[in-house]
Amino acid sequence: MFYIIATHFSQDYHFLNVFRYITFRTGGALLTSLIIGFWLGPKVIRWLKTVQKNGQPIRENGPESHLLTKQGTPTMGGLIILIGITVGTLLWGNLYNPYILICLFATLSLGFLGGIDDYMKLKHNNHKGISGKVKLLFQIGVGVIVGIEIMKHMPEHLNTHLTVPFFKNLLIDLGYFYIPFVIVVITGASNAVNLTDGLDGLAIGPSIICALCFALIAYLVGNTIFANYLQIHHIPQSGEVAVFCGSLIGAGLGFLWYNAPPAKVFMGDTGSLALGGGIGAISIITKHEIVLAIIGGLFVLEALSVMIQVLYFKISGGKRIFLMAPVHHHFEKKGWSEPTIVIRFWIIAIIFALIGLSTLKLR
Q1: Beta bridge partners of 162
Q2: Which domain, by its residues, includes 336?
Q3: Are 250 and 31 in contact (CB under 8 A)?
Q4: Residues 6+ apart with CB under 8 A from 252
Q5: Which of 213, 238, 277, 289 is the one with CA 20 to 30 A from 220?
Q6: Is 37 contained in some domain?
Q7: Which residues pair with 172 in a beta bridge?
Q8: Count of domains in the chain?
């Protein structure tokens, strides 16, 4: 909104030209979302406690300590994140830009799915929400819409192509497989963040790290001079996605204030599915989908631990590789304290992020 106002009145009020700079508006979006998170957090938490008698249902087959330490904690705190992202983006973003609207759509639509899932868990006082098939079909639908909209606005020489890190000019034309590829990215990122969300602060920390990295990537990809210098593919208008990333970072930090151990509120599927979907959409717009798998390496490891555990359990006739999956529960079973796991996993996430950012120059 500020950008649109500035473009109309900047000739008369020259100080409004500052709103044309993506860096300024990214900082503004971050601070706005952060303030909203700080202000809104206590109000949302109080409201959630009044409407949720028992808080988030705890898995009976999960870590025993959770039945004592997390019982009664309200869920659906992802509402704090979604409101912060939405307000920050709408105030500071260029709403004529299609990419920033695509990111908002992916985030809010999957947040809606997560909200329904959380509601069903609370309604039936069970950790099982809507069926996996329904959830997957909804995610596929979101992926199809995101893929079609990105193709419509992407330069023709890039619209169905996959870029490969560490190579300057390598492009793989996915053709008819592009939409299925987008579905895999959106669904995979969404579910990976969801699986990581099992300890206080564990999912939101790496999500903020991913958003920081992609704020930089989006700005560089959208800038002709920097893109040419780094020999990465320039995508016009994609720099605006940095403003969305700023909103995500601010909203994430605001939520983390109340989600830090011991958490006063859980984000629930409302937050985790939304964050994963939004980050996935950003990676597709910036043509850094493979880099997302590196920067978001912690999410990948968490998802792989579940898949490996399930597959080995079926093949071996009931044996397990991990004491419990996802892998953060494995370390809980081994006696690591929750803050130790969270901080060490954050360190791993930072290492993955640094490796992913190195792909911008190592070509």
Answers
A1: 172
A2: 2-358
A3: yes
A4: 81, 204, 207, 208, 211, 275
A5: 277
A6: yes
A7: 162
A8: 1
Residue 363 lies in a domain: no
Max alpha carbon distance in the chain (Å)? 75
For 185, the token pair is 């990215």
Exposure of 29 in the CB half-sphere (CA atoms within 13 A): 37
* 233, 220 contact by CB (below 8 A): no
* Residue among 292, 294, 283, 267 at smallest CA distance from 202: 267
321 within some domain: yes
Closest Cα partner for 111 from 325, 342, 268? Answer: 268
Beta strands in 35-169 (DSSP E): 161-163
pTM: 0.94
3-state helix, strand, coil split of the chain in percent (to 5) is: 70, 0, 30
Q: At what angle do helices 78-92 and 22-51 cross, to 10 degrees?
A: 150
Position 337, amino acid: S
Q: Is the peptide bond before 155 cis (omega within 30 degrees of 0)?
A: no
